[in-house]
Structures are given as C-alpha cells and as structure tokens.
Amino acid sequence: MHKRLRGPERRASILHEAAGLFADKGFHGISIDDIASAVGVSPAALYRYFPSKEALYEAVLDALACTREDYIDTVLAGESDFAAVLRSLVRVFARGMAEQPDLLKMELHSLLDGHSAAEVFFEHRWKTLTDYIEFSLTELQREERVGPLDARLSALMFQGMVREVLIVKCLPAHDRFAEQPLEALVDGLVDLFLRAVGYADQ
C-alpha cells in the first residue's frame, strides 16, 4: 500500500517515477496510466498535478536540468588556453551527465521520439560546449594554431564522440571500460581531438 503523501511530496514522487519510465521507454512508450500505476495514484489524481503527459515530460526535464553544470564558473576558475578550458568543460559536462543517467537515456529516446520540447532541451544542453569549440577553432585558425578544418563540423563530431563515451561508460550493465574512470576516458578523448585538429599550444 502506498504511503499517503502531501502535495509537494506527491509531485516529487510523480516526477521521480516518470523520469525512470521516460528514460526506459521514451515519451511515446508509456502512458499516463502507466505513470499513475507506478506512483500508486489514479490517472485523475495525477492530472491534478500535471494537465497532460507533455506537461509532465517537460516538468521532468526541468527537474533534471536543476543539476546542470555551471560552465561559466568552470571557464573563469581555471586556465584560459583552449586545451585546458575544453578539458574542464568536458569533464564537468560528463560528470553531470553520469550523475543523471536517466537524462542521457531520455536524450537518446528523444532522437527517435521527435518530441519538440526534448529536442530543444538537449540541443541547448550541448550548445554551450559546441559553440565554444566552434568559436575557438575559428579563432585558432586565424592564428594558424590548428590545421585547416571546418570548425562547425569539428564541434559536431566532438559532440558525438563525447556522447559515445557517455553511452559506453554510463549505460551498459557491464562496463567495457570498468578499469578506466570516466575522467580518464574524457581526458583521452580530448587529447585525441586536439591532435586531430592539429592544435599547437602557445
């Protein structure tokens, strides 16, 4: 028998259960009835907190976003050269995503679900990182400190590499890289990328 919860506690319980279900099955893979059953309330009771499945999904994204990493602090707190900032940014991003595996699962589902709110959310989540890479590579090209390349495409490719590391490291039941901490894999990825673009430190 489910414990009777107060309003804020019940809302938090709904968000928690919904996050797990959306992560496992995607937006289109579950119904309000499924979520209500997992929480232990009727669909009518759930609708008192969220007017639709779309509203609940967006609330889950908002709740998970409360743990978002502060890129500005990362940039201001450390060294200013491209390699050091990139390494710090990716470490912070990867650590934040690893602490919220449901968010990573929801991102992967969103690529297939085509849910507009999710697409905007995850595009924005990556945007700070990819914009920094694109802008920096463009500037470094002018200074002849990287080889000839397409800065936007390079940023997109790096995003895909980071996502793949997160998928391999954070999602499988049997981690193929169990002997390597996430940060070590991230550092190796950054080193590989810097060599690929021909980065020359000052």
From TrEMBL:
Keyword Transcription regulation: yes
Residues of the DNA-binding region: 31-50
Keyword set, alphabetical order: DNA-binding, Transcription, Transcription regulation
Domain HTH tetR-type residue range list: 8-68
The organism's place on the tree of life at top rank: Bacteria
One MF annotation (Gene Ontology) recorded for this entry: transcription cis-regulatory region binding
Record protein name field: HTH tetR-type domain-containing protein
